[in-house]
Automatic annotation (TrEMBL):
<keyword id="KW-0808">Transferase</keyword>
<protein>
    <submittedName>
        <fullName>Glycosyltransferase</fullName>
        <ecNumber>2.4.-.-</ecNumber>
    </submittedName>
</protein>
<dbReference type="Pfam" id="PF00535">
    <property type="entry name" value="Glycos_transf_2"/>
</dbReference>
<feature type="domain" description="Glycosyltransferase 2-like">
    <location>
        <begin position="11"/>
        <end position="168"/>
    </location>
</feature>
<dbReference type="InterPro" id="IPR050834">
    <property type="entry name" value="Glycosyltransf_2"/>
</dbReference>
<dbReference type="InterPro" id="IPR001173">
    <property type="entry name" value="Glyco_trans_2-like"/>
</dbReference>
<dbReference type="InterPro" id="IPR029044">
    <property type="entry name" value="Nucleotide-diphossugar_trans"/>
</dbReference>
<dbReference type="GO" id="GO:0016757">
    <property type="term" value="F:glycosyltransferase activity"/>
</dbReference>
<keyword id="KW-0328">Glycosyltransferase</keyword>
């Protein structure tokens, strides 16, 4: 354990919306950290349930509750947390997940011992409703810099990240996005900073019943925005062009936006036959059936 009295302040941020029935577990996991020099910002994005009541049950001066009257989305809530953070480091925790008690201690120790790194993530345990679980520590296979995460990204900001506060100078979560917020942010974070990995299981991710059905319209918009931000890089790399434009292509089909699908198809260099076949499937079959066929063919 590090000497907390002479150490850096860590700001833990939990954005939340109507998670009063779940957030207590997350709060306890933060308050039970072996590393004690932290502040805990809970950003309530206009909840209409008992979230504030649950937060108020905890008598700990390190908790800072910030409430907004109008729902702005995950990106806005995270930006508000960062703007109000006083710490030298920022950690994010989703309101239905929990840190293991040594996360802050081990994550900070790792970053301070890898001076060239400005952020890290850890391993996670995903816990299912029936109590079964699986562990994962993502170690990238690609070594490209600084556009590495355009090629490969299999982790989200709520998956055991600790980030130096200085990284947020000029870098925010894109409030235009309602999905793929993490993807967009991490691509840009990696373009400017270097990472290390805490290769231990440090976070429990809890699956929840009744997940909201995928909003393909929002996903389509988000990926179109991400492509536009990195268009010069993507258009000049056949591998990236194939990856990003094909994804936007099938998201457009999922959303019945055939106009954008045709526009995107014209930008796909490799795999036009595959894309053309998929386009015919969505023209012939009802959308739900076409989606099932696409998923079967993608296995």
């Amino acid at each position: 354990m590090m000497d907390n009295e002479n150490s850096n302040l860590i700001s833990v941020i939990t954005p939340t919306y109507n998670r009063g029935h779940l957030i207590e577990r997350a709060i306890r996991s933060v308050l039970n950290q072996s590393y004690e020099n932290f502040e805990y910002l809970i950003v309530d994005d206009a909840s209409t349930d008992n979230t504030q009541e649950v937060v108020n049950r905890f008598d700990d001066q390190r908790i800072r509750y910030i409430s907004y009257e109008e729902n702005g989305g995950n990106a806005v809530a995270r930006n508000v947390g960062v703007q109000n953070a006083r710490g030298d480091y920022i950690a994010f925790l989703d309101s239905d997940d929990e840190f293991l008690e040594d996360f802050l201690d081990k994550a900070l120790n790792r970053l301070e011992n890898v001076p060239e790194a400005s952020f890290l993530w850890s391993g996670t345990r995903t816990v299912n409703l029936d109590g079964s679980y699986y562990d994962r520590i993502w170690v990238p296979q690609t070594k490209k810099h600084p556009n590495q995460f355009l090629y490969e990204l299999h982790v989200g900001i709520g998956r055991g990240f600790l980030i130096k506060k200085e990284c947020f100078i000029g870098l925010k979560f894109d409030k235009r996005l309602r999905t793929a917020v993490d993807t967009d942010f991490l691509i840009r974070l990696r373009q400017n900073f270097t990472f290390t990995i805490l290769q231990e299981i440090m976070l429990n991710i809890h699956t929840q019943p009744g997940s909201v059905r995928a909003n393909f319209s929002e996903k389509k918009k988000s990926y179109a925005t991400i492509i536009d931000k990195h268009k010069n890089i993507i258009d000049n790399d056949p591998k990236l062009s194939r990856k990003w434009y094909y994804k936007l292509f099938w998201l457009s089909l999922y959303d019945n936006d055939f106009s954008l699908a045709r526009e995107t198809y014209s930008k796909i260099r490799d795999g036009k036959a595959k894309a053309g076949f998929l386009y015919l499937i969505f023209r012939i079959f009802p959308t739900n059936q076409a989606i099932k066929l696409h998923k079967q063919l993608s296995r």
